[in-house]
Amino acid sequence: MTNDFCSGRVVIVTGAGGGLGAAHAKFLASHGASVIVNDINPAAAEAVVADIRSAGGQAEVNTSNITDFADSANIVQQAIDSYGDLHAVVNNAGINRDRMFASMSEEEWDAIMSVHLKGHFCTSRHAVGYWRDMAKGGDRPIARIVNTTSGAGLQGSIGQSNYAAAKAGIAALTLNQAAELRRYGVTANAIAPAARTGMTTAVAAMAERMAPPTDGSFDYWAPDNVSPIVAWLCSEYSSHITGRVFEAEGGKLSIADGWRTTPGVEKDAQWTLPELSVAMDDLLASEVPAQPVYGS
């Protein structure tokens, strides 16, 4: 154990059998948190828990389905039964079903929405129910939701319209959670990570780009580079931060500055179509163009 920055905190990490989730779970445990390692792959979750315990940390395996509302309640209950409380949920689990929009199947769309968007809803909803009851009972929690969006959700990504739409939904969900839940002592933030995982290296070009260095230099794309911001957001030290989306890769952190309303143009009557042709030039002149869609 390196320090107690998250000492006493009980944290659920979904999709923690590998990649970013495993990195987050191990990092949290190494800083004092007790971790529920959720993954639908029992062997993967057990391996992560074994690593945590061998390093002196506390963790338990959970294999509940985050897309099933009833089953996902068991993740929250296990945290409470095992460690007596729950302080944070890290929604990390995800899958890819990449396809150009014109060829995408209904199953590919639904699978992404289920795992990413509904998966973010289910576990968090049960956790929030627990925290709300605490707050109403006079025991205000110091609770955290950490969601996982993506650059694809913030600016789009060619061949990933399902994934981009789900991740954009997660960013918007985070804003709503932050606005609604602060009264109960719950903050909600999101991360948009870029790291070497099974999902990002499925494409040969990305695997080559994100390959570990062979000269002993800083491994920029290592997934555990993202974990410090996750642990910090789960800690008691982040109470003043809510409703933010943090982009994290390597040693770089930034805030994704969301949609903004321009000054606009206005008249005291309905616009005619010829007038709109002129007004559009003024409207476009005052905008800050969106970042380009990945792959465009």
Question: What can you tell me about this protein's structure?
Answer:
Helices cover 42% and strands 14% of the residues. It has 296 residues and is α/β, with parallel strands linked by helices. The protein has a single domain, classed as NAD(P)-binding Rossmann-like Domain (Rossmann fold). An eight-stranded mixed β-sheet has the order 3-2-1-4-5-6-7-8, sandwiched between helices. The protein is globular, with a radius of gyration of 21 Å. The termini are far apart.
Provide tags for this entry.
single chain, 296 residues, alpha/beta, Rossmann fold
Quick summary:
The chain has 296 residues and is of the alpha/beta class.
Shape: globular
What Rg, in angstroms, do the CA atoms define? 21 Å
**What is the first-to-last residue Cα distance?**
45 Å
Widest sheet, order of strands: 3-2-1-4-5-6-7-8
Question: Helicity, in percent?
Answer: 40-55%
Number of domains: 1
The CATH C-level class name: Alpha Beta
User: Are there runs of 5+ residues with pLDDT below 50, and where?
Assistant: none
Largest sheet, strands/sense/barrel: 8 strands, mixed
